Amino acid sequence: MTDPNRRPAISHLTDKRSKASLSRVVRKVEFPLKAAETPEGETPLPPNTGANYETDWARRYASRVTRRLALATLGKAVIQYYANPTIRGLDRLHDLDGPAIFAANHQSHADTLVMLTSMPAPWRHKAFVAAAADYFFGNRTTGALSALFIGAIPIERTSINRNTIDKAVTLLRSGWSMVIYPEGGRSPDGWGQEFRPGAAFLAKQAGVPVVPVHIRGTFDILRKGRNWPKKSKAIVNFGRPLEFAEEDNNRRFTRKLQAAVESLADETATGNWFAARQRAHTEDSPGLQGPDTAAWRRRWVLSENRDEQNETSRRWPYL
């Protein structure tokens, strides 16, 4: 039985609704915590994020030295620990002179560090990376870190942005090499995706060759959706540079580039360069996309291919 003389609790001390949280206060406060509104009649400045992020400062001397030291020390150590990459095909680049576009398949975020630490020194030290504007340049912090440590520039994935294209072409013409992933995004399941014509367009506009590159093993290191890497074995295979011929158009050159990467993937998987070249000549190289079947079947075939590759060593052709 309740005591009729008992005083009720003081409501304003116990009612949670009356307590103003810090987040509510911050949301209500405008300037200086929030940018002031543009005066009426004035055109607002474009945001310094996404495709509008300016990266010229990342190619100045101090930034280049910082990036070079970071890649040679921490970047190299991290990649050696987690990926321990085997690098193949460097002899195919002996005749390459000047800037080039290095176009590789894209399995995970580990690809960029693997590429930048595996490329030969003349191109590695003067390279920039085509990075998704919506992901790497979504805010100023990630944009600054991406530009400084991997030399990234923003590239639109879903639309054509003349400013970003002109920036890439200008850098290529001025002696910088480019790392690009023609698939336009990371693999969702370990298999490749159809190449987009961006690399072909840039090669034609800048007049530079394209080096096909196949990267294997990075999906196991840092697959899409994983927040922390795990150790695996990576293989980077460089192909012969491709020139944009007079009879080529963007679509034809893109097919040629994808076929070259598929041949490199075949060579890496089988360890037999001669057989891979024969299949490439007859246009019978296994595709990067994998079987068109259920997701579980695609994962099973991929794991089966990995087991076969682990048991396969490089073999010289039988002559």
UniProtKB/TrEMBL annotation:
An MF annotation (GO) of this entry: 1-acylglycerol-3-phosphate O-acyltransferase activity
Pfam families for this protein: Acyltransferase
GO annotation, cellular component aspect: plasma membrane
Domain Phospholipid/glycerol acyltransferase: 100-218
Protein transport is among the record's keywords: no
CDD domains on file: LPLAT_AGPAT-like
BP terms from Gene Ontology: phosphatidic acid biosynthetic process
SMART domains per UniProt: PlsC (SM00563)
Keywords assigned: Acyltransferase, Transferase
Descriptive protein name: Phospholipid/glycerol acyltransferase domain-containing protein
